[in-house]
Amino acid sequence: MSTITIKQLAQELNLSAGTVSKALKDSHEISAETKKRVREMAKDLDYVPNPYASSLRRRKSKTIAVVLPDIADSFFSAAIKGIETVAQDKGYHVLVYLTHELSYKECSILNDFKSGRVDGVLISVSRETTENHHVNELQANGIPVVFFDRVLPEINTAKVVTNDFEAARIATKHLIEKGCHRIAYLSFSRTLSISMDRLEGYKQALCDAGMEHAIDVVFCCNDEDENNRLIKEALSRQSKPDGILASAESLTIVAYHVCHEMGIKIPDDIKIVSFSNLATALILNPSLTTISQPAFEMGESAALLLFKSLEKNNFVLEGEQIVIPSVLMERQSTACSGVPGTELNA
Amino acid sequence: MSTITIKQLAQELNLSAGTVSKALKDSHEISAETKKRVREMAKDLDYVPNPYASSLRRRKSKTIAVVLPDIADSFFSAAIKGIETVAQDKGYHVLVYLTHELSYKECSILNDFKSGRVDGVLISVSRETTENHHVNELQANGIPVVFFDRVLPEINTAKVVTNDFEAARIATKHLIEKGCHRIAYLSFSRTLSISMDRLEGYKQALCDAGMEHAIDVVFCCNDEDENNRLIKEALSRQSKPDGILASAESLTIVAYHVCHEMGIKIPDDIKIVSFSNLATALILNPSLTTISQPAFEMGESAALLLFKSLEKNNFVLEGEQIVIPSVLMERQSTACSGVPGTELNA
Lengths: 346, 346
What we know:
2 copies of one chain form a homodimer.
Chain A: H1 6-13, H2 17-24, H3 32-44, H4 51-58, E1 63-68, H5 74-90, E2 93-98, H6 103-113, E3 120-123, H7 133-140, E4 145-148, E5 159-161, H8 164-177, E6 183-187, H9 193-208, E7 216-219, H10 224-234, E8 243-246, H11 249-262, E9 271-275, E10 289-292, H12 295-311, E11 321-323, E12 327-329
Parallel strand pairs in A: 1-2, 1-3, 3-4, 4-5, 5-11, 6-7, 6-8, 8-9, 9-10
Antiparallel strand pairs in A: 10-12
């Protein structure tokens, strides 16, 4: 790193460190001529202010943390892109932490932030997380937290989510309208609020259609092989599903593999809708009907809220809630037999 | 952030700040009993050492930066996952910066690092980058840099790459063996070394088969619509390609869309191979033959090299080069007409 300290710079200039510091901050107390001398010498000596020294003075790190379960997922990678774009504009730095869906990792990561490493935190909690204390402690330490997508409902702070209940209801209704009678919901969590909201939306659509009896939830997990087994089991049942609502693209990819393997034809034998932002949805075999989440916009909005709270002392995050709706993109995986695809409209 | 300073902690304990600091560092100069008292009081008062204060003392930030073009790409998201896993083990923090393929952004990002914000840098350069000075300056400031995937060949430091020349040669040979006579190479850069290495491998395979005359390179860009236009143009030619080697999955996705739109059948009318790590390669329409890059391993190895140089003063990065080979995964997009797919072997 740059080895020139402000003291050395001051020596070279025959000025006090305080004067040099003020000059570099363009203080009105310093003459234009002195400022010029200081700036030139700073440039010649390639002086760069030490960010940690100034963080210490300002008690600000100009750094935010993004804590999320996974990055190899089209939703989260797009969300980070949205966050990073805002941060670059604001001149902030972005630390990225992956919990790999483990709540103990999430706790230890957040615990470290109490030290003041970051000015604020954007988080989408792990599949396992049910406790609030790790987030509460952070807030108690005066570090603002904004949730995006996967929230902890009890915690009173800003949240940026999509309309999970309504999107799942619409997707399920879509499957019913396409003639499905036994729709399975592939869930990735028994506790996560968005997963539960989607479950409720799914149930609502079945009730609205007088199909309460047909509620069929397959709770999947973190392990791909186990999910493969669970889905294969569901599709081997006597009265197997003729429709699937998948709560995560990773589960949809497994479901496609299982169908290909078992010779179950999509959409003729089974129709599939998935929460997903896959760039390849349109060119899958068959093209996938998705509930496309506004991933980039959700990351962007969450970051904007956090920076607002960092820049405006009077702005309170409590109670702020932004809901950005998802969109159903109808494609071949839910087409009626013999009906041409809708790729080009999608 | 935690408001208890080491001074306040010392006051509470009626000890000197120095003694407390040594006790927390488990120094042999301090009695077991005192250490116990200090640790207990630190716990009671929820004392957390300020990372910037210790960074300043140690001149170490325990933070590394990962600079890359994009994150919504299966290669880079998997690579970050590899990097992040190693960093978590080592107790380091990971700052992620996206250049969005713009070299001026890359320069300003690296310039900021001179301040000592990070102890080391992992970088995969932007499509535009041809200059070395921004990386040289960083090294001159004593900040170690390790390249992964997209390297600057002239810079003498550790590089972790895949066998781009050989992988492209094998993929092109594969297309020739499947009966392609006019193979187009979709390139994403006119300057980037890996893109050029792949181009050379492609040319080599054509020469080996006595097909020098058939060299056909389509240089694509950053803009998806423009790439769509370029590929459509290539596939509308009198003697249009019957094979495609795509240097990036983003170009393959566009090529699939164009083929679907123009009614060009894959693999009957045209066969496609792509450098890609798409999780959905196997369920595309048709399943995609890929050159699968060891993305996670490349990120992991690059991070391990960087930490080695940070932890061992005597370890020099210069001259270190790790090549992790890519693997050709043969699937339906290059199958001979009427030949059953190889999904299950893939």
